[in-house]
Design brief:
Keywords: Glycosyltransferase, Transferase. This protein is α/β, with parallel strands linked by helices. The protein is built from 27 helices and 19 strands. It starts with a strand and ends in an 8-residue tail after the last helix.
Length: about 650
Amino acid sequence: MKRLILHVGFHKTATSSIQKTLAHNRSELEKQGYIYPSFIRHNKDIINHSIPFYSVYCQKPELYHINIKNGDSNNIGEANDNYNKQIDHYLSMDKNIIISGEDISVLPHHALISLRDKILSKGFDLNVYCSVRKPYPFTCSELQERIKSGNGTLDNITVTKKSGFIEKLKQVFGEKVTFSSFEEDIQSKQGVVGAMLTRMGVNCHKLTVQNSNEGFGNQSTRFLAHLNKNSPTILDGKINPVGRGYFTKSLDNEKFHLTGKELEKVKNELNKENGRIQTLLGASYCDSHYPVIKDESYSIERSVQLIKTYTNRHTLFDGIQHILEHSTFSASDLANQLDLTVEEYRNLAQKFKGVNIFHSLTFIAFAKKLRPQGPVIRDLYEEIKQEFLNNINIGIGIITFNRIHDLQKTIKSVKENTSDKVNVFVADDGSTDGTSEWCQENNIPHSQGSNKGVVRNKNRALYYLYEKKKCDIIILLEDDCRPTTPGWVEDWAVASFLWGHINYAHRRIIQRKDALIEGNGEPYDPFICKLVTGQCTGCFSKALSKVGYLDPRFSGYGAGHVEWTERFIKHGYNGSNSTLKVFPAINSGLHSDDAPTFKDEEQLKRNQELKRSMENDQSYRLPWKDEVDMHEFMSEIPGDNSE
């Protein structure tokens, strides 16, 4: 009696590998007395028999995702007539037939009965084979497949009740159905494909196994899941013209599992499904534990890969938004690596405008760098910049020691050219020329400490403005460097935010051809220099939270500020893609008098040696050396004499 071997999956049990192996070895199978049918549609060899059988026997074939993708939904009658003729052709053969299609297992009860009866009416001895995966890995793998296909998301994770399909198969096929454990087949010497084919009665020794590794890694899956929210490949039963593309290659190999939070939403259902499976098939088909992964965090390298590979003009914004919500790098870092067109940067700026003004400013800045004279970009840049400035807290720390006249000039210039909303703080390093008294008379917040050098003094300003005033942007001005034009602080704030850290482009530096690499000195296109000076420095609070303060081990004159600046560079805040040690710098609205400094050669030599010892250290620094030093430091900061 001729046999019909019906392999019905389940899904995610190496069915694609089994089908590819059967199709690839048709000649050898014929020698063994088996036919693996080739169904033809649109001049293509259909080796997954789900397509013809599910289309013919399901209730609404026009909604079958394969028919939608193949363009058969509007001509479903003709398509199914064609499939039926081919099915009848193979069933009329006096040969042993192997049919493999995982979608067959999800057909409704009455449809399976119709299929069974048709096969039996053609004189076949029917044997059904079904591989069963444990509930949790199946849930993860099926979810990954739905995401990969373009319609699944992580918002509504469900546990497919395979127990119901098992019951249905038992009811329809009775003793003719054989269930096997996918996990046990994985451990088989023959592998999953060989184990299943041997079980069917196929001699695998002369077959060439075709493995199909179609699984997607964790980060690729999660990125595509986010794109599917707004841009599914199929929408309302039709191909979505603005949907994301379809991809077959994963960019990472990390196994996709649920996070702890995601698991909690479905854990009860998983437990129930395990109970049902145990009753139907036994404990070996059930989960013993549910492995989870940590919430995803993308590296800059992986992010660029994901965006360049998986997004198009419809999905670029969604992809970038998702990446920035799940990463530790800045939008500037990402924009620097993406190399988008000016239109793409501009469009991103417009879309982020109502979502995140910080990201919006980043992308319009990159657009302006590419098209600085464009009127649309110019107006949008000014509009976004103003909204950004309205949403941040700026602090200016003026660094001084025994130069009261310079300090007074600088304070006057700051007041004349800066908004009253800006926090101003004077870091006085124990001056004996009346600086403290003058600050007190003029209600200017200032430090109260003995002379301990510029590193300690800059840390006083940083701590007060960052910790006490919660400033988003901190600008450190030495007392001989002062603003000359209104709007200077806005440019410094924008540059500090965009690049995390910005320096003063002193005329001595930018006039040297060997010191200047690129840039025009604008906030969105800073000079990229090989040299740096500390007369004015701006930093963004997020960058400062990673880098920390100037290292308190430096004392007196020299090297401390440079080491701090280089630490920003080590964290990637260099304003460019250059791998060199370079410094972003602007000179917007500032002038330096270059007053004499209190230089000590012995201190300089000691500090330079200390700096060399820190060459590979980019760790966060506190502003004090130890607990005793902490108490003394805190006593120097106004508003808190405790701790």
